[in-house]
Write a structure and sequence with these properties.
mainly alpha, 1 helix, about 50 residues
Length: about 50
């Protein structure tokens, strides 16, 4: 069982960057979108007052 976890660790390590890259890109997109959305809401509420 210990050998199974040891052999599984490098595979997970190799997969992480490949899985992480699209996640980071998606987070970057959602981050920019959220910032723009909050900015529009903030500017909209600021112009009302």
């Amino acid at each position: 069982m210990t050998t199974h976890t040891v052999t599984g660790a490098p595979a997970a390590h190799f997969n992480f960057p490949a899985l992480f890259r699209p996640v980071l890109t998606a987070l970057r997109f959602t981050g920019h979108f959220l910032v723009a959305l909050v900015g529009v809401i903030f500017l909209g509420s600021a112009s009302e007052h």
